[in-house]
Amino acid sequence: MNNSHSSSAPYRGHHNAWIRPAWTPVTIAMMIVGFMVFWPLGLAMLAYILWGDRLEEFKSGVNRTTDGFARNWSCGRGRGPRSSTGNVAFDDWRDAEIERLREERRKLEEMRAEFEAHLRELRRAKDRDEFDAFMASYKAKADGSDEDDKPSKSRRKSVPDT
Q1: What pLDDT digit, counting tens, does each position of 27-56 carry?
Q2: How do residues 55-108 score in pLDDT, each as one tens digit?
Q3: Quick one: angle between helices 25-37 and 39-51, nearest 10?
Q4: CA 132 → CA 47, 105, 137, distances in Å?
Q5: Which of 64, 100, 83 shows the shortest CA–CA distance to 108?
Q6: Who's near 104: CB < 8 A, 6+ residues apart?
Q7: What span, in angstroms and rounded, lies between the C-alpha atoms of 117 and 124?
Q8: What does the alpha-carbon distance between residue 65 and residue 81 come to, in Å, rounded to a whole number?
Q9: CA–CA separation, 55 vs 107, rounded Å?
Q10: Which of 52, 32, 50 is nearest to 42 (CA)?
Q11: d(CA 85, CA 159)
């Protein structure tokens, strides 16, 4: 196929002449159908008609903002190069503080892990004590019921031999 923009194919390329941010019969019909099908679609089409010409500017602004946010996020996380303030002493101090905070975080994570292990051991010991108490009471109950069912030697009456 030919990719040139000839008069026989006027709708190829990045923009469609039928759907553009303007009050054209097609965009009005799409807005009405959008409201009838699902009202947010109609509202989106209305917004596109009113402010669609600013869409490219808006998209580039959003891209710039998200790129800046991502850059700051990655620098704050230690991934990628940090931005320099231009003051070497401040940058060195900031790097030392960030490293100190990382070390503190590592220590806190170790302490948390040790505390969780301690709690697990406490729960295990408590469970063991509760289980042992249950087994002792169960055995005591079982031993007591066995004595009632079986006659003991001391309770047997001696029968005279005849």
Answers
A1: 888 889 989 998 888 898 888 888 877 777
A2: 777 777 777 787 777 777 655 555 445 678 889 999 999 999 999 999 999 999
A3: 150
A4: 71, 40, 9
A5: 100
A6: none
A7: 10
A8: 19
A9: 49
A10: 32
A11: 109
Alpha carbon distance 16, 75 (integer Å)? 41
Pair of tokens at residue 5: 């923009």
All residues at 6 or more sequence positions from 44 whose CB lies less than 8 Å from its CB, including other chains: 34
The 3-state secondary structure of the chain reads: CCCCCCCCCCCCCCCCCCCCCCCCHHHHHHHHHHHHHCHHHHHHHHHHHHHHHHHHHHHHHHHHHHHHHHHHHHHHCCCCCCCCCCCHHHHHHHHHHHHHHHHHHHHHHHHHHHHHHHHHHHHHHHHHHHHHHHHHHHHHHHHHHHHHHCCCHHHCCCCCCC
